Queue: 3 jobs
Job 1
Amino acid sequence: MRDSPILYSFRRCPYAMRARMALLTSGKIYTHREVLLRDKPAAMLAASPKGTVPILVLADGTAIDESVDIMHWALSQHDPEDWLPRADTELVAKFDSVFKHHLDRYKYAGRYEVDPLHHRAAGLAMLAELDERLKEQDYLDGATRGFSDIALFPFVRQFAGVDAQWFAVNAPERVCEWLAILVASELFEQAMVKIAPWSEGQS
């Protein structure tokens, strides 16, 4: 039995981003296995047949294959920034479902055969809700970054990247400032370090 958990991850996946950031914040030692989604290793599929990242395999073999659950597990081990008591679980769930729905159809309109501008407008309206909250406090969970910030911002970042020029002109000011701070953070920089893909037979 291994002493530390194994994280199967993909650098650009927003779900994996937030899991990595929570693990890094917790200080929990883990083994990172970067995967290519077009060539998923057998060990990853054995751990979780659904085949999506991130997957955290604990020392006893238990697999956690939902990113929010990985965040909760990591912070239950150690929560130095006090994220868990301040987390807005309803907000996270809303963005994971409704905002993600609009994001996918804005970014991949051809795949869904929909009008991307309709979904861009719907996503922008949800960002206006965040802006109202951020006018009252620096972060979504209060004066310092917390669970909700880290859970949401990879998807807001993805939304912004679809048309960066449009976003810079039209996105709410406080959301832009909040996003810029999180993207420039040392934590995000650490989470985005490039790691060579793992293959079967490696430790």
Job 2
Amino acid sequence: MTALPEVGPLLDRMAEELTDYLQHHQRSDPAFVGIHTGGVWIAEQLHSRCFPDAPMGTLDIAFYRDDFERHGLPQRVRPSELPFNIDDRHLVLVDDVLMTGRTIRGALNELFDYGRPASVTLVTLLDIEARQLPIRADILGASLVLPPGRRVKLTGPAPLKLTLNPAD
């Protein structure tokens, strides 16, 4: 059985690493962007711990997915909200689980429809290491290898908890 890490300690470490990373790369005045749904929850936690005065936005990448023909649209599509100009802005893009890389690709496509950021720092709580695209997180909570036929899910928003579920 795969042991899932506790979310709280991961967030504590990620907040420290993110602050150090942004300072080291001289990326002052970042804006946070969470990918619905779990990425928004993680982004809110990191935002409040690292840069509570920074702007915060959300993305729903449903219309930017490349698997419509296989899965169709999700039942619940939310509007993306970026209440700030992203041109020449340092963005912190946050998702809960990085698996194939396709969600992040869709998020980047959507962000570039809004403008051209100065940089994008990718932050994910978990990396499942089932990559189909060459995408890696700059700040990562933990890496997991899952048993066949299993998926990990973040539940929340409070408390945030990881659960191991059968694949859809």
Job 3
Amino acid sequence: MNYKHLHYFWTVMRTGSIARASAQLHLTPQTLSGQIKQLEERLGKPLLRKAGRGLEPTDAGRMVHRFADDIFSMGAAMQEALQAGQEGFGQGSFRVGVVNSVPKSIACHVLEPALETGERSRLICVEGKLTPLLAELAVHRLDLIVSDVPLPAGLSVKAFTHLLGRTGVCFFASPHLLKREGLTLRQARSRFPRSISGLPWLMPSFDSVLRPRLEAWLKDEDVSPSVVAEFDDGALTKAFGRQGFGVFAGPAILAHEIEAQYQVVQLGAADDLMEEFYAISIERRISNPAVAAITDAARRELFPKR
């Protein structure tokens, strides 16, 4: 395939017309039309069709445009990296984006196998919101994203979602909180979930995936929490929980770890309230050894099969 012809087609799509693309490319409209015709003949499918006085892409044209977007975005990213003196960027490194709502302990356990593959590569982790991380993945500045939501529908990012696993949710509180509320641990557990109704609560923010699911579960169980604080950061939530400011939720697979690290006790579990975790990569069939190690270990060891 002639990539110059592909670039011409991409420019027509980006500018919206043959005339504007011709002016930008310094070609006559007739020459540009002829070059795109050659691309269509090479691909065996029409890419543009008449629509009134203008042109619109065919279904094949839309698909080719999506791929062309990726190709020329990567080219622009390469030029930017060279101009910034980043010739060594990414060599010998495995770059992972972690969505900031994923619990840090989950991310750590998920990524541990990447350091045990025998590959001599450096693990580089960055944290952020999903959309900016997907933009970095699209131009190959990231090799993988660890997320608590799948790839959103409708985004023009050529990536694939791989489910790592699911876990139920447990509820924790400091022994100081129980004592202050006149509850023993045995009472709190035997009366769960009624025992946590009316207690002070530390809730995830409204932006989190867990918040609406948690509120629906509380409503179904007829539990009325007294929300005293909301947090974007799970580690900060647990730190406040350790100080006895309220009940908080956490992944069931980390229950023992949370109890030991934050000196709290588990009050009960909601196995039907699920959290899910995903790996998002540019590969439909995983071939990267580090990504394969991460997904295999998570499914086999970290997340229990239900």
